[in-house]
Design goal:
Number of domains: 2
Distance between the termini: 32 Å
Helix content: 25-40%
CATH class of the largest domain: Alpha Beta
Mean pLDDT: 90
Shape: globular
C-alpha cells in the first residue's frame, strides 16, 4: 500500500492545502473548507484504488463535501473494469479532514493543515460525529499515562518518563469553557498550558516529536479528528487514548444530538454497545498498514504553511507509515506557470 499510494496521498493533501491557503486571512472559513474538499476529491479520484470515506465532512445529504460512505478513486467508476484489474485492486478506508482548523485559515492564524489517514478496508474506526476525550503523550509514556487518571497523576508519570520536572512540561488544551477545571488542575500541578482555538490533530502528533516543546494533549475535541490523530500516533509509537463523549452537558456546546439518551441510542445503532469504552491508538487505527499524511496550510509546529510565489507555490508535508516505520517531511515546489525564480529557503 505504501509503495502504491505513498506519493499520491502526499499530492492529495498538498492540493487541498494550496486550494485552502488561497483563502487565508479572508474571513471565509466555509469557502476555505469547501475548496480544500473539492481539491482533495479531485486528486483522490485520479488514484488507482477503490476508496471509501469512513470519516469525512458529514453524511450523504451534506454533499458536495466528502461525505461518509462516499467512494473515491479510479476503480469506483462505472467503467472501472476498463481501468482496474480485480486481482490488483486496492480497497481502502479513508479518514479525511481537508481543512483542519477552518477558523485558523479564515483569520490567518497558525496551525491549520490538510490531513488524511488510510488503511485497508475495516482498518479505521468509523467514529460518529460526536466529541471525544483525548490523551496524547510521547512514546516514552506509552501505556504508562492513562486517560482514567487525573491530570495531576498523569503529569507526574509523564515527568518521570521524560526525566523532567512537572514544571518543565507543556500541555496543549483547547480553549473551551468545558476545560476550565482541567486547565486549573494542570496549572496547580505546576505544568504550563498552551491554549489553542482549533486544530488538535497537530497538537496530538507534536507530542511524538521531541523538540516541539509539546508534551501532552488533554481534553475534549471532535471524535473524527481523534481517529486521524490515533492513526498518526500508532505509526509513531506515541500514546493516544480516546473515549467518546455522548452527554451534551459535558461538552456544553456543539454536540450532535439533543439528548444523552438519544446519543446512546445512536451509538447502539452503529454497533457501539459500550459507550464508555476507552480506545487506544491500535484500536482506533487497527489496520495492518496505516498511512497518515498532512500538509501545512498555515505555519505550524511541525510544518510550514503554503508559501505562494509568482508562478507557483511551496508546501511542506508529513507522511507517516506503520509499514516502513518512517516519518518523512516532504518539501515541494509546485510550478503552476513558468516561475521567474525559485526560492531555495
Amino acid at each position: 500500500m505504501e509503495s502504491t499510494l505513498g506519493l499520491e496521498i502526499i499530492e492529495v493533501v498538498e492540493q487541498a492545502a494550496i486550494a485552502s491557503a488561497r483563502w487565508m486571512g479572508k474571513g471565509e472559513k466555509n469557502t476555505a473548507d469547501q475548496v480544500a474538499v473539492e481539491a482533495m476529491r479531485e486528486r483522490m479520484n485520479r488514484i488507482h484504488m477503490r476508496g471509501r470515506i469512513v470519516i469525512g465532512e458529514g453524511e450523504r445529504d451534506d454533499a458536495p463535501m466528502l461525505y461518509i460512505g462516499e467512494e473515491v478513486g479510479i476503480c469506483t467508476r462505472e467503467d472501472a473494469k476498463t481501468y482496474c484489474n480485480p486481482d490488483e485492486l486496492i480497497e481502502i478506508d479513508i479518514a479525511v479532514d481537508p481543512c483542519e482548523g477552518t477558523n485558523l485559515v479564515a483569520y490567518g492564524q497558525n496551525g491549520s493543515m490538510a490531513v488524511l489517514a488510510i488503511s485497508e478496508k475495516g482498518g479505521l474506526f468509523a467514529a460518529p460525529d460526536f466529541y471525544m476525550k483525548k490523551l496524547a503523550a510521547p512514546p516514552a509514556a506509552k501505556g504508562k499515562v492513562d486517560i482514567n487518571k487525573s491530570a495531576t497523576e498523569n503529569l507526574k508519570i509523564l515527568a518521570d518518563c521524560l526525566q523532567r520536572t512537572v514544571e518543565e512540561l507543556v500541555v496543549v488544551v483547547m480553549d473551551r469553557s468545558r476545560h476550565k477545571e482541567l486547565i486549573q488542575e494542570i496549572r496547580e500541578a505546576g505544568a504550563r498550558v498552551r491554549l489553542i482555538s482549533d486544530g488538535d490533530v497537530s497538537a496530538a502528533i507534536s507530542c511524538a516529536f521531541s523538540g516541539t516543546n509539546i508534551h501532552a494533549l488533554m481534553g475534549i475535541g471532535a471524535a473524527p479528528e481523534g481517529v486521524i490523530s490515533a492513526a498518526a500516533m500508532r505509526c509513531l509509537g506515541g500514546h493516544f487514548q480516546g473515549q467518546l463523549i455522548y452527554d451534551p452537558a459535558v461538552v456544553k456546546t456543539g454536540l450532535i444530538g439533543e439528548s444523552r439518551e438519544g446519543n446512546l441510542a445512536r451509538l447502539k445503532e452503529m454497533g457501539i454497545e459500550d459507550a464508555d469504552r476507552v480506545y487506544d491508538a491500535e484500536e482506533l487505527a487497527s489496520g495492518n498498514t496505516v498511512l497518515f499524511a498532512a500538509c501545512g496550510i498555515t505555519p505550524g509546529t511541525l510544518m510550514e504553511g503554503v508559501r505562494f510565489f509568482h508562478g507557483g507555490a511551496r508546501t511542506q508535508s508529513l507522511v507517516i507509515s506503520s509499514d516502513s516505520k518512517t516519518a518523512r517531511f516532504v518539501d515541494t515546489i509546485h510550478m503552476v506557470e513558468s516561475p521567474q525564480h525559485l526560492q531555495l529557503h
